[in-house]
Amino acid sequence: MKVEKYQDAVVAFGQVVSIDETQGDGWANMAAAFSVQGKKLEAFNALQQAVKHHENSWRIWQNLMMISLECRKFKAFLEAIDRLLKINQVKYF
Q1: Is 3-92 CATH 1.25.40.10?
Q2: How far is residue 39 CA from its own chain's centroid?
């Protein structure tokens, strides 16, 4: 996909979350568009919002874990690992 389309996606998902900031999927999709553009810190911030509204989504936590490491946000990285372990523990036990 072209860079312009990712910028358009950021704008579109920004509109979604401005209407309803509890739209975790909107935040997660905005983070994905930021990440593809190399805007890692913006992606990190969007994922921080996404996990507030999708606390049990292992995919969002996994994405937050990875982007946290790339942004050198080690506390957030460890929190994401902890949350992933708790989600998987509930899933399997």
Answers
A1: yes
A2: 12
